[in-house]
Amino acid sequence: MYVRGTVADEVDVRSVSTSYGESELAEVPLRLADDGIEPPGNATPALSDGGTAAVTDGDETTTVTLWNKWTESAALLEPGMELLVTNAKEEEFRGETQYATTGDSYVVVEPSFLVSVTSIRNWVECPRLYYLNKLSGVPLNYPVVKGTLVHEVFGDLLRGRDLEESIDARIEERGLQLGLLGETPEAVVEDVRENAKAIEGWLEQGRLTEDDNWRSEQLLISETFGIRGRADAIRRGAPVELKTGKNLKKEPRFKDKVQAACYALLLEEHGGDVDTGTLLYTKNSALDRNEETGDLTPAKDFSMGDGLLKYVVRLRNEIAAMEVSNGVPTGYEADAKCEYCFEQDTCMVVSGRLDQDSKAGQIGQPLPEAEREYFERFYRAIEEERREVHREYAKLWEQSAEERADDDRALIDLEFVEKRSLEGGRWELRARREGGATSKLREGDLVLASDGHPVRGDSELARIERLDDEIVLTADEPVEVTRLDVYPSELTTDRLLVAMHDALLKGDARRKDILFGRTEPEFEAIDEEFIGNNRNQNEAVTKAVGAKDCALIHGPPGTGKTYTIAQAIRAMVERGERVLLSAFTNRAVDNALEATLEQLTAVIDDDQVVRIGSESGVREDMAPYRLERAGDPDDRVAKLQNAQVVAATTATCGSRVMKEQTFDVALVDEAAQLTEPGTCAAINLAERFVLVGDHEQLPPVVRAENELSESLFERLVDLYPDAGVMLDRQYRMNQRIQAFASTEFYDGQLRPATSPVASRTLDDLEGVSRDALPERLQDPVSFVNIEGDRSQYTDSEEAARIADLIESYEAAGLERSEIGVIAPFRAQVSEISNHVPDDVAVDTVDRFQGSSQEVIIVSFTATGTLEGPIFEDYRRINVALTRPKRALVLVGDAQALASDPVYERMLAWARR
Ligand SMILES: Nc1ncnc2c1ncn2[C@@H]1O[C@H](COP(=O)(O)OP(=O)(O)OP(=O)(O)O)[C@@H](O)[C@H]1O
């Protein structure tokens, strides 16, 4: 029986005498979860006695007794924490039903907090090491890269690839990284071969017989234990872990066993019965085995005892409890010996700078109070964000397939078409979807591809190569795909933490004075005209070029941000500076790069401009500039080091390769959409920085509500008004269209840049005549009143009317591709898509930011009364209303809209 609930009060741990002698017990007052708890879909004998969950009718509090070793986990509990006990037994005590652990029970603290296997492994070495790794990320160093290479070769061998071919191919793929590390392919081949030989030899021995049943790299998630990880390999249902080190002992290292045990737990939950684990030490070569030097066989098996599995869950509980209570480990939690630790110095420095209690001690001066306070605040905010990612994971099993599809988080009921093996042992998978099914998934995304359930079924990480009615994926394993789910990645969260750590602990003093408002940014006087026809753009470039610390360019819609960025980069390049061009999205990076290239043709050679990004992330016309990472190390690294302009998203700026680069200046577009640490990922790499954005448009995309939702751009604009310039002439909208946004969002400062812009109408377009439109659509701004169908997130009447409007525009000579439709909710986007032809772009505001169209139709999907903000906040409506160049049509219920002051003013303007 499963018991799950919330700890209702303090937990009491004590000793009692039983017929077996002294025992420890903890009585946990537990408020049972509303519906008790359903056992996971495929609960196995290891986890379940087949009994059902404790079911309650609401707020019922009971007592759960945790026996013996589980009292260690009980001691971590605080009121409010979640607790799960498997295989519990029911007991009557003074007429009340209570529960207690049995010999088969597992006790899980905060089961929805997903701890990674790597974290557990680090934690068992030293909890402080776990924390330090989280803060500083995985560095680019040779042992790490070699480890990855050996793992990749191992996977290839399992998939039947030839050893030499695999080694060559994998080393080639990592050309750039190896080049940055100053390694030659010859030396690396030797090194990897030495490690891989041992693996191959071992594989040969028990050669891959049919019943050996190997599988490489499996992503595993446990909803019961709150653990996730990727096992190197599974043989006959048991985990095999690869280690690039040497181990002369008979037994595997303890931390390695712990890691394998984590996978064993995960496999058991997936229906396995795991009794052994294998560690492969690739530096061991059985050939030189002799008694004096120790046991040099590469593979060491051990039996997977019950005690070890439970110990692993207790370790995991320690991490979850610490994280959920916002704790910072000190190192005292473990009996690790600091004097033998490679990380001792780092540990002492971090403890010293952040004034943290630590077993290793502190060295150095603590950071100023304000910086430590900032660190703690943002650390918490980022961890909250991580928890939101975990909630996304939980939805993988809490929501039904249909619910996930309705939420746009999954494509379900696909028809599996075929699997085809690719060169290098990977697979191409194809599946077909019913027309019309939409989701958040996009080409290039990593997704969970499964044969029915992303956690309980056969599931793999796959990349979407093509997303039409036929979906093409690539993956390491040939899953018979019938379902795709959004993969909730923690990568972004991890990188935010590292970027913040780097800004504060490695950042230069002057930069921090700027970030913390301790000094005014300074500017060098520049006496040069960069842009002749636009005063504020010229001032923006002057500021960007002359900034000693930072410049802030506020660019409302269509005001030539991109053009200004390109001019600024040109001026910087002419001054011999190395420039990082970054933005939140790939699209913005490519846009800005395209404009920059136009400016740079006369100034530098094409090969001095490099775009860093994945093949699917970089737009086709910018692909020639994309830095191929594979190839000869020297050549790859030369290509990067020679580049005077490097363009990459801010997420990529946090990658190991980019973190090694330095720039004179970082120019960041879409800066108002970036969190503070997200911005730091780019500006950490440069001496000075220029942020370009508009805080009246979309704010940072974050899941949790906390300080992450204010951008550094916005904070600095407030802090240093003199470091900023607002571009005030827009090159996009007819005057009538821009009027509302200008008064409502830009203090009336926004003006058309030229009179042709001010007076542009649909008549300017070839073959289009406004006279052919119904009268009410002839004005550049019109409002169509519609009562609507009263559903909350969709409105089929609005959708139908929009389809009519599109027909009217087509009849007047417009191309469908010149019309865009914006709706506040995804459900309404689907609804409208079902009504209008495929080639009309229909999407949410977020997908339209940064683009423009001749005609924009906005669906408000509001009827009767307004219950909440339609577009979440007014910044979104600003974006929606500023997309069109020549015509804007608002469709909605006037009465509903009039109940909100901003929408009421909008109505007045549209109906004028
Ligand atoms: N000073 C200028 N002189 C002439 N044309 C300009 C000038 N500045 C911008 N433009 C033109 O105005 C248009 C819009 O400029 P740009 O694409 O740079 O705007 P943006 O502010 O980046 O737009 P968005 O708000 O979509 O990000 C472009 O066609 C650009 O060439």
From TrEMBL:
Its cofactor is [4Fe-4S] cluster. Keywords: 4Fe-4S, ATP-binding, DNA damage, DNA repair, DNA replication, DNA-binding, Helicase, Hydrolase, Iron, Iron-sulfur, Metal-binding, Multifunctional enzyme, Nuclease, Nucleotide-binding. It comes from the Archaea. GO terms for molecular function: 4 iron, 4 sulfur cluster binding; 5'-3' DNA helicase activity; ATP binding; DNA binding; hydrolase activity; metal ion binding; nuclease activity. Belongs to the DNA2/NAM7 helicase family. PANTHER family: DNA-BINDING PROTEIN SMUBP-2 (PTHR43788:SF8), DNA2/NAM7 HELICASE FAMILY MEMBER (PTHR43788). This is DNA helicase. It comes from Natrinema limicola JCM 13563.
